[in-house]
C-alpha cells in the first residue's frame, strides 16, 4: 500500500496484508455487513464519478441530511440494531458505526483518500495511485 509522508513530501510503500478492520458497536452478521459495505462502496463510486479529484466529503455528505432515509437500504440494519438495543440515540450511534464502515471501505479502495479532522472526519480524494487512506499528518496508517 502507498502512504504519503506529507512532512517529507515523499511516498513510501508499506506492505499491509489486509486493511485494518474496525469494530462497530452494532453487532451485524457478516453477510449483512458485506451488503452494507457494498452499498457504502457504491456511494463512494457514485461520488467519485461526479466529483473532482481533490474534493472533500464526509459520511454525513453521503448518507445524512437529504440522504438519511435508510429504511429501504442495507443501512437500516445499523439503525435497527441500535433501536432494538435501547440506544439513547439510535440514529447517532448508527451514524458513528457508518463512519467506521466508510473508513474501512475507503481503506480498501483502489483510489487514495486523505483523512482530515474537521467537525467530523472529512476525506479528500487524491489524484494518485494506490490503496487506502492517508492521514493528514502523513506517514501513518489510520486506525
Walk me through this protein's architecture.
By secondary structure, this protein is an alpha+beta fold. It has one domain. The chain is 38% helix and 21% strand. It has four helices and six strands. It has helices at residues 30-50, 59-63, 76-84, 90-108, and strands spanning 2-5, 10-13, 56-57, 111-117, 121-129, 132-135. It has a four-stranded mixed β-sheet with strand order 3-5-4-6. A hairpin with a 4-residue loop joins strand 1 (2-5) and strand 2 (10-13). Helix 1 (30-50) crosses helix 4 (90-108) and helix 3 packs across helix 4 (90-108). The chain starts with a strand and ends in an 8-residue tail after the last strand.
Number of strands: 6
Q: In DSSP terms, counting alpha (H) and pi (I) runs of 4 or more, how many helices? A: 4
The oligomeric status of these chains comes to single chain
Unreliable stretches, pLDDT < 50, 5 or more residues? 1-18, 138-143
- Portion of residues in beta strands equals 15-25%
User: Separation of termini?
Assistant: 15 Å
- H/E element string? EEHEHHHEEE
Largest sheet, described in full? 4 strands, mixed
**Mass-distribution shape:** globular
Q: How many domains is the backbone divided into?
A: 1
